[in-house]
Amino acid sequence: MEEANHLRHQNDMKQIYARRKEMIERVFARKAWYALDNLMRD
Question: Quick check: pTM over 0.85?
Fold first, then answer.
C-alpha cells in the first residue's frame, strides 16, 4: 500500500491520474446526457 501511495505522488503518475479522472468525468456526463435524452423522448 505504501508503494502505491508513493507512486501516486510522482509527477508522471499525477498526469496519468488527472487524465483518468477526466475520462471518468466524461463517462458520467455521457450517462447523464443519455438519461436526460431518454426522459425527453418519453
Answer: no
